[in-house]
Give the backbone structure.
Amino acid sequence: MRSNDNPKREHTSKGERERERERERERERERERERERERERERGRERERERERERERERERERERERERERERERKKEKIREHKGMNNEESGKTRSHVSHA
């Protein structure tokens, strides 16, 4: 009366049990494939976040280069203003001397 030891197995043949085990293995393989797909999606999201961080760093470097170019333009303008100022003072003196002559 072995079949009475486990009432669930009473009407289950060996082949049916094997098919059920195979279905369970297939479900587990599918769960593992889904976990792998999710890991791949997460890696893709992380790569995209890293690319965005790199783009932001590049934008910041470009802003810094632009600020440096602006500072350089200002330095050149200041030198020109200083030079013009010196010329104006000199030419002013020259003119005053010329007007007295």
User: Anything to note?
Assistant: The mean pLDDT is 85. Residues 14-100 form the longest helix (87 residues). Residues 13-100 form one domain. Residues 25 and 31 are 10 Å apart (CA to CA).
